[in-house]
Write a structure and sequence with these properties.
Blueprint lengths: L2 E2 L2 E2 L4 E6 H6 L6 E7 L14 E6 L16 H14 L5 E6 L5 H12 L12 H10 L14
Parallel strand pairs: 3-6, 4-5, 4-6
Antiparallel strand pairs: 1-2
Helix pairs in contact: 2-4, 3-4
Length: 151
């Protein structure tokens, strides 16, 4: 089992899915979900068997340079970390989904994997703001990625 700085974790995998994949996903008994949607999107219809679901709203804002309040806020990142820490010693998998499943969910999942000491790759991260905010909330700022302004 992976060992995180705050104790041994039972989480063996952190998955990043699209909303469509998450809505079709049938969780196992120990699975928890982080559901990410944009501010104007409707709530997804998830399977009722999830142990717990954290619903977050933030848009795919990739750097602080836009000064947009629609990206992942620090309070939302702290809520996400509190959710992970509440479940990391009892959950088996953490599933993170966003609408398309390639930017916000992948970046958040990568940060959670890094924080829990699970293997992963940072080269797939398309949303450095989300990744950095989650790492900051985990108090792992040394692993920050450089934010590149959108074109």
């Amino acid at each position: 089992m992976p060992n995180a700085p705050w104790g041994a974790s039972t989480v063996t995998d952190v998955l990043a899915l699209s909303q469509r994949e998450a809505e079709a996903f049938v969780p196992e008994a120990g699975d928890v979900c982080i559901s990410i949607r944009s501010h104007r999107a409707e709530c997804p219809t998830l399977h009722p068997q999830w142990r717990d679901v954290l619903y977050l709203r933030f848009n795919d804002v990739q750097c602080e340079c836009h000064a947009s309040p629609l990206g992942l806020s620090r309070p939302a990142a702290r809520s996400l970390v509190e959710f992970v820490l509440r479940h990391h010693q009892s959950a088996t998998r953490i599933v993170v989904h966003c609408f398309v499943g390639v930017s916000r969910s992948v970046s958040v999942a990568a940060a959670i994997r890094a924080a829990l000491g699970l293997p992963g790759t940072r080269d797939m991260i398309l949303n450095p703001l989300a990744y950095n905010r989650v790492m900051e909330a985990f108090q792992l700022e040394s692993a920050r990625l450089e934010e590149v302004p959108d074109a």
